[in-house]
Amino acid sequence: MPLKMLQIIAPTAAENNIKKLVSETSVISFYKGALLEDDHALYTLLTRAEDRQQLIDKLHDILQTSSKARINILPVDATLPTVESRISGDTREELYQKVGHGAQLNFTYLLLTFLSTIVCLIGLLQDNVAVVVGAMVIAPFLGPNLAFAFATSLGDKDLMKKSFICGTIGMSLAIIISAGVGALNGSVPTSVELISRTEVGISGVALAAASGVAGVLSLTTGLSMTLVGVMVAVALLPPAATFGYMLGASYMKEASGAFLLLSVNIVCVNLAGLLVFLGQGIQPRLWFERKMAKPFVLAGILVWSVALIVLVSFIGFYNLVDL
Asked: What is the pTM (predicted TM-score) of this model?
């Protein structure tokens, strides 16, 4: 969303600094509201997306001496007269809220994982594309992967750990459920949707990379993430379900192909997501935080890149053996 309102609770002593900051940026409108207790006041700023992050960072510096200071970011659907804005996007603080919700390991996440896996298995076994797509609509795997890439770009160890645990448990649950179904069924039906997930090629790498890029762009620009979530689920859920099913049914060659596809897709989604976050300029606010985050960023790029190279080599070897 290009326009948003900043509602600021600040000490009245900081009013001149706030006015100076407003004069230095292209704030659309600024006014002082009600006086509050303890010599604080309410200030309201109508801002564009291109200025908002810089403005909030400088407001942090101005307000850090007050424990009662607060910055609220409010959406603005429209304003008259109409104001043009070159870009649309969210601030670092807003992204924290979004990715934090996506990496919560709770009953809803586990239930959606269970339901999407069951629906996906039905679609794969019945060779029904529509059912497979329906499963990917409800699959919750976009959140943990984007949260991990976002946390890596900021060097946030707590969020990295939280999103890693959430993603790992969700993926493990999908594989365990699928393995149980495979063990009970014991055979592999002649399903194109199922068999195609045991074959891995460069096209799968491109799909996963595109999913990661699209996911971050939708997150940082404030656009709807529903369709992008489906894209990421395309890359992750069907290979995970296929791997588990083949493993449970003791078809090890097919299981290895599905596992290879799943692994390369996870790597591509996370590597592409991290690179796009960096390209979008997502970084910590303070210089020492940026310095501390740098090793995490470099390590993330290195680990994901090496993993991708190794997996692509395995793909070449795997396909060569099939020939």
From this structure: 0.85
